[in-house]
Amino acid sequence: MQNCNVAGYDISKGTTIFVNVWSIGRDPGAWDAPDEFLPERFLGKETSAWGSNFALLPFGSGRRVCPRIKLGLKVVRTRLANLLHGFDLKFVDGMRPEDVSLEEEYGLSTHPKHRLSLLMEPTLPSRLY
């Protein structure tokens, strides 16, 4: 839109700039162990794939987010529902339904604030239908 200077480089109006996002995602100066799959590196950080968070730029963010993220979320939810349909869930250690905390911690994803332990017993086939 106009001539400018970025980090000591003069950029002329009308110049097309390509950002090498692949190299940003593998830069050891920006990431600890950049070649390892460590999703826990985002725990406790205020990040969102839907906004303009540059920490998530190598994975797609904002308008450039993964085009199949909505399909992926639907598939995960459907599989979880099918899994839960086949099991009876029971509390452990004398816990009661009123003892369950619904408080959440927000970050890249939402996590329960307090841990919940459940016992999963397979549902009997006669109860499935």
Describe the structure.
The protein is elongated. It contains 3 helices and 6 strands, in the order ββααββββα. Helix content is 20%, strand content 16%. The protein is an alpha+beta fold. The model has no long low-confidence stretch (mean pLDDT 82). The termini are far apart. The longest helix has 17 residues, at 69-85. The protein has helices at 21-25, 69-85, 125-128; strands spanning 4-6, 9-11, 87-91, 104-105, 111-112, 118-122. It folds into 2 domains: 4-64, no CATH class; 69-128, no CATH class. A hairpin with a 5-residue loop joins strand 4 (104-105) and strand 5 (111-112).
The number of distinct structural domains comes to 2
Gyration radius, rounded: 23 Å
Strand order of the largest sheet: 1-2
H/I helix tally = 3
* Total count of strands: 6
- Helical coverage, percent range: 10-25%
Structural class: alpha+beta
Q: Strand count, sense and closure of the main sheet?
A: 2 strands, antiparallel
Terminus-to-terminus distance: 64 Å
Give the H and E element order.
EEHHEEEEH
Low-pLDDT residue spans: none
Overall mean pLDDT? 82
Strand content: 15-25%
Approximate shape: elongated
